[in-house]
Design a protein that fits this description.
The chain is of the alpha+beta class and 306 residues long. Helices cover 42% and strands 18% of the residues. It contains nine helices and eleven strands. Magnesium ion binds next to loops.
Length: 306
């Protein structure tokens, strides 16, 4: 529990407000989230504590970029830093994660699925002036790179280096590494220049979509990670993760925006590199989840004779 840190953060962000209640509501690899009650307006907030200083500023920046798309997001109240930790305070949503589908009827799943898919489409319709990472406010309207394929090739190469290091630490095996090397060689064939740089959330699965079950509506999208300007198909595999299949998210998205011809190959590459890189970053050994992404990649490469 980070009672002292939260008390100080609340005081600094909310005009000397006292902390009257604090309950943990979420925990991930990079941070922990608490619901707090305050003695002064707005009387409640969600406090996200990051284990790495600076990660709060990055998330706040990605929220700023996402806000321009008009999708629903939590309000950001402020930030606080102390030692290794960064704190981000935002509005406390009266909602639950869309991954929790318990009690939803088929009709409600369908309606929510339509809304979630529409939200993803709306996000991806925002056009940037260039491709690449969102590293500071100068990237809020577009990245600094002219070519997606060039940018992605470098990104995948960095992930490959990370994956090879994980292989030498025994987290993945050589068979996996060889499949990744084949994918790296296939990038020029598989990945085309998209029609425009689209805004990418970075972790757009149902865990990070907050819903109101009673009203069957999307309340907000949360937890952007490494948001960037890129190919909108980059993160569509996320719509099939967590509870995405139960809502039929990928099909619903594709009804609004048909998928490209080589979507299966492209998405197999994007997803295996993104997931593999994430596992390496958090020092996690290959499990069934990552094995499935790598097996899909192998299958797609074989299908295209690559
Ligand atoms: N503003 C908010 N209002 C209500 N609940 C929230 C809010 N922000 C986060 N939560 C809850 O906390 C959970 C974790 O939050 P979040 O997704 O931001 O972090 P995480 O996935 O644990 O972090 P990370 O992946 O960055 O380590 C969410 O799934 C949600 O249930
Ligand atoms: Mg999350």
């Amino acid at each position: 529990m980070y009672q002292q840190l939260i008390t100080k953060a609340v005081k600094a962000i909310f005009n000397d407000s006292a902390l009257t209640d604090c309950t943990p509501i979420g925990a991930g690899f990079y941070g922990k989230v608490y619901a707090v009650k305050l003695s002064k307006p707005p009387y409640s907030a969600a406090i996200k504590i990051f284990f790495r200083r600076g990660d709060n500023e990055k998330e706040a920046l990605w929220y700023l970029a996402l806000r321009r798309s008009g999708i629903p997001l939590p309000e950001i109240y402020g930030m606080y830093d102390e030692g290794e930790h960064g704190v981000l305070a935002m509005s406390l949503l009266k909602a639950c994660s869309a991954t929790d589908t318990s009690g939803l009827t088929c009709r409600e799943l369908d309606k929510l699925g339509d809304e979630i898919a529409e939200t993803a489409v709306k996000l991806h319709l925002l056009k940037g002036s260039g491709y690449g990472d969102i590293t500071d406010v100068s990237c809020l309207e577009g990245g600094k790179e002219d070519s997606w394929t060039e940018y992605y090739r470098i990104k995948a190469k960095k992930a490959m280096d990370n994956i090879s290091r994980a292989v030498s630490r025994g987290l993945l095996d050589r068979r996996h590494e060889n499949i990744y090397y084949r994918a790296l060689d296939a990038i020029d064939i598989a990945i085309d220049t998209p029609s425009y740089p689209a805004l990418i959330h970075g972790d757009l699965n149902t865990d990070n979509i907050m819903i109101d079950k009673k009203m069957s509506r999307v309340v907000a999208v949360i937890d952007p990670i490494s948001s960037m300007w890129g190919d909108y198909e980059y993160e569509l595999f996320q719509l099939d993760c967590a509870s995405g299949k139960a809502y039929g998210l990928l099909d619903k998205y594709a009804q609004s925006r048909p998928l490209s011809d080589k979507y299966d190959l492209k998405s197999a590459i994007y997803s295996a590199f993104a997931e593999g890189n994430h596992y390496c970053n958090i020092n996690k050994a290959c499990d069934d989840n990552l094995s499935t992404f790598i097996a899909r990649l192998d299958f797609a490469l074989n299908n295209y004779g690559l």
